[in-house]
Write a structure and sequence with these properties.
By secondary structure, this protein is of the alpha/beta class. The protein is built from nine helices and 14 strands. Pyridoxal-5'-phosphate binds next to α3.
């Protein structure tokens, strides 16, 4: 059976090997007589799944010892509240607004602290990134928030900002939801990073939080106990029942990624995949991507047909060729191809072949 290629922005394609393994283990995990969904989170079977997932993730991203990895729930959107509840101390935080997701983070944080906009490129319709040197950071923000890959607008920071070099001692908070594990992370620049699993890691329902130890223990008094990073860390993410099946699936993805050669190897493949699609779009007279080349996302590639009346025909013909979920984000329109780790090069080649054929057919 050959499966179609799925370009969804999330929940998104998973490696076929991971799905097959999960299917094979569905009724009986490793001779335990139980499926993973049926196990106590405190039993030795699930604890071993959890510990392997945590240690594989730590190895894949070279997460330093002074960072805790938390498996939480609520997705990136809940973290927009959980981060200020834990880090702001009710004071202030700075936001670099580079697209739909950081815009949303700033708005949510206003419920809990003073949320300053240090920079915004809204006036370029988020097709560029504001240069770090131009950010107007405030005096003593408790943290500085960025979204290092804007899933909707297709804008990626190819390097995380170095706040110290900008004269700012505050920790960097990065929403890495849609490019987690697609490339290495420079942890020396990060205080906290978070992301939902459903983009590049596993099924919806697990949120990964990487938090530097010294940032724990400062939650506001009204922070829900289950969302207090210190409490979650002290209980190894089991203060409440964790999303056990999602953690298991994420663990299988981590094993798959290790077998692929790890994050550095997958990054090279991601660069090649994105390059193939951008190069095709840039030479085409039908398709356009308006994001400045130095900040184009490798994971989420929005593109538009110059004649928008062809959108439905494009999508229908794509579906007929086994190319699924290419429709763009609701507010932006057009198309979007998400090329996460689990999207093989063959999928991008098939997409480019479709785009070429469709363009020739119109000419
Ligand atoms: C998808 C996404 C979110 C929201 O994730 P939920 O799981 O729906 O809460 C937040 N930030 C970014 C960058 C995303 O791509």
């Amino acid at each position: 059976m050959t499966r179609p290629f799925n370009f969804s922005a999330g929940p998104a394609v998973l490696p076929e090997e991971v799905l097959e393994r999960a299917a094979a283990e569905m009724l009986d995990w490793h001779g335990s007589g139980m499926g993973v969904m049926e196990m106590s989170h405190r039993g030795k079977e699930f604890v071993s799944i959890y510990e392997a997932a945590e240690s594989d993730l730590r190895e894949l991203l070279a997460v330093p010892k002074n960072f805790r990895i938390l498996f939480m729930q609520g997705g990136g959107i809940a973290e927009n509240a959980i981060v200020p509840l834990n880090l702001s101390r009710g004071e202030s935080a700075d936001f670099v607004v580079t697209g739909a997701w950081s815009e949303r983070s700033q708005k949510e944080a206003r419920k809990y602290c003073q949320a300053n906009v240090a920079a915004s490129n809204a006036e370029t319709s988020y097709t560029t990134l504001p240069a770090a040197g131009s950010w107007k950071l405030s005096q003593n923000p408790r943290y500085v928030h960025v979204c290092s890959n804007e899933t909707v607008h297709g804008v990626e920071m190819h390097e995380l900002p170095d706040l110290k070099a900008l004269g700012c001692d505050a920790p960097l908070v990065a929403d890495i939801s849609s490019h987690m594990l697609s490339r290495p992370v420079d942890w020396s620049r990060v205080g906290l990073a978070f992301g939902g699993a459903q983009k590049n890691v596993g099924p919806a329902g697990v949120t990964l939080v990487f938090v530097r130890q010294d940032l724990l223990g400062h939650a506001l008094p009204h922070c829900p106990t289950a969302f207090d990073y210190q409490i979650v860390a002290d209980n190894d993410s089991m203060y409440n029942t964790p999303p056990t099946y999602g953690i298991y699936m994420a663990g299988l993805t981590f094993q798959w990624l290790k077998a692929q050669g790890g994050v550095a190897a997958i990054e090279q493949r991601n660069i090649a995949k994105a390059q193939l699609l951008y190069d095709f779009i840039d030479q085409s007279s039908l398709y356009v991507n308006r994001v400045a080349p130095n900040c184009r996302s490798r994971m989420n590639i929005p593109f538009f047909l110059r004649d928008e009346s062809l959108n439905d025909a494009f999508l229908t013909a794509a579906r007929a060729r086994g190319l699924l979920q290419l429709k763009g984000y609701k507010t932006l329109g057009g198309m979007r191809a998400s090329l996460y780790n689990a999207m093989p090069l063959a999928g991008v080649q098939a997409l480019v072949a479709h785009m070429r054929d469709f363009e020739q057919h119109q000419a």
